[in-house]
Amino acid sequence: MSEFINVTVTKAANVYFDGLVTSRTLTFPDGSRKTLGIMQPGEFEFGTGAAEIMEILSGELDVQLPGEEQWRPIQGGESFEVPANARFSVRVHSLTDYCCAFLD
Q1: 20 to 30 A from 67, CA-CA: which of 8, 22, 45, 86?
Q2: What are its E.C. numbers (predicted)?
Q3: pLDDT 10s digits, 35-87
């Protein structure tokens, strides 16, 4: 899906890591949420409340998911899932455009 229709966009940006990661929240008529964002190159650790699916639209990164010792390469067109109440790390190699779906 290349576009979302009939959504509410929260104007205020979610800003993390001194602006190296930013996103905007979309709320759908059924109450579900997604964020659309950009990650600059760097290494970042995130925490989840709800389970998430991270869809990488463009860019390259490595992800280390909970319980995994190895880093997994991810590039534009791929996605990965993160469980609820977990921490995961990413090493972003190039400007990365992403869409995060919350599975609450």
Answers
A1: 22
A2: 2.4.2.1, 2.4.2.2
A3: 999 999 999 999 999 999 999 999 999 999 999 999 999 999 999 999 999 99
Q: Whose CA is closest to 46, among 84, 72, 99, 93?
A: 84
Identify the CATH number of the domain in which residue 44 sits.
2.60.120.10
Its domain, for residue 82, covers 8-102
63 within some domain:
yes
One-letter amino acid at 57 equals L
| pTM for the full predicted model | 0.93
List strands edge to edge, sheet with 42-47: 42-47, 87-92, 60-64, 72-75
**What is the Cα–Cα distance from 15 to 33, expressed in whole angstroms?**
17
